[in-house]
Each structure stands twice: as structure tokens, then as C-alpha cells.
Amino acid sequence: MNQLLAAPAQFEVTALARTESINKQIYKDLAARDALVKPANLQDVGAVATMLSGADVIISLYLPYTVIDVGLWYQVNIPLVPSGRLDDLIVLDDSVIFGGGNTKTGLIDIDDIGRYVARIISDPRTLNKMVAAFGQVTTQNEIHSIVEEVTGETIPRKYRSRKDLEETISATVEKLAQNPIDEALIMQKFILGYACSRGIRDDNNLDTAKYLRYLDAKELSPDVECTSFQDYIRQLVEGKRDAAVTQSALCIQSTLE
């Protein structure tokens, strides 16, 4: 968002805000920076559909488009350490390792997303294309090792097998069939599916993206410097960064354990 707002001659930014949140300072700040802020009642499906109708018909009208998929955020891929020094800095403890922990997955610092987006949508090579934007490709085992190296602490490994994960997903799907509007079950299915996709099936990596004909943002813009996961963790430990994303992440913690 910051990168888009910094170039008003190139981009027109519209932000949708829940009706009850429209007067929050964050939206006032966006409006002051020339973003168009619109109230949206997320409980009114028809109204939201109308607001998003332009996006729905982009392809059918042959309008230019670009699809951008970014890596999982660094901020939600951090295991806690025994001393507790990271407890107040992160929203989600990502200590559970899926499978053997060696599945490659694409990550990105949330602060780097805007840099890529601004480049991608103004690059004619991305017209009617899909682009994958990763800051770093790594594994859960490597993530744990990086956090250990930076903090000097040893993190006990907690593994969850593919069999256990898939059985839990199947059980959740069965429960949802009986109660399809249960929000807790819907969230659980979503989170467990995400865990299986990135930790077991090897979906979230550059090879898979290229197989699906995604362009690589790093190849398109090699001069864009992304923060490495190690540097991000170092900044986190030094108190220069935090891992705050949204408090809603707290509700998924028990789902993964």
C-alpha cells in the first residue's frame, strides 16, 4: 500500500473498510494520503459483490490484468524460543513442523510485498500474466535453525505427520458437512489445508509456480532487494521490528498443534 500511495500519478488506491471501522485512524490516514476509502458491510453479500463486480469481469471483458501471488509472510513463520523472549513480539507461534520439515516453501517479509507489487503492475511484461513474488525459499527445519542461530537458543522440535494432518482434515470435512456454517470448523479446514499445502504437498515453491506458468518476480526485477529471513529475525531480536499482522491469527494457534 505504501508503495502504491507513493506513486499517485501511476496508481489509484481504493480501500474497503468495515462500516464499523470506517472512522478508525488507519483509514483516516489512508484518506489523507489520497486513497479512496469506501465503507463495506461484509455481512451483505450482495453489496460486497456489487463493490467487487469490476474485478469479477476483468477477464471476460478482455481488460488487462496481472495476478500476483506472494510467499507466506515471515511474520507468521516464526517458532517461539524457550526463554520466552519472542513471546510478546509475535502473534502466531509456528513451532509445529509438518512431515519431516524439509519441504521447500516460499516466504516474504510483509514490508517487501509493496515493493514488488509496485514494480509488477507497472511492468508491461506482466500484462495478462501471473507473477510469484518470494523473498526467500526455505524449509521449516531451516527456519528453526536460523532462529536458533540468531537467538543462541535450542528450540525443541515438535513434528506433525502427514497421516495425522490428513486424518484431521478428513474429520473436519465430515463435521463441516453436518454443520456447514460453523465458523470455527471453516477456519480449521482453511488453516489445516494451508499447512498441508505448504508443509506436505510442496505446493508453495517456485518450481510449482513456474510449472503453472507464473513469472518469477526476482527474475523480472533483480534489483529489488528483499530482506532475508535471517536479517528479519535479527531485527526482531534487536527490537527493530515486530511480527504483528492481525490479532485474528491467535485463533488458529490451537488448530495447528
TrEMBL record:
Gene3D superfamilies the record matches: NAD(P)-binding Rossmann-like Domain, UDP-galactose 4-epimerase, domain 1
Signal peptide: none
Residue intervals of the NmrA-like domain: 96-184
Matching InterPro entries: NAD(P)-bd_dom_sf, NmrA-like, NmrA-type/Isoflavone_red_sf
Name of protein: Isoflavone reductase
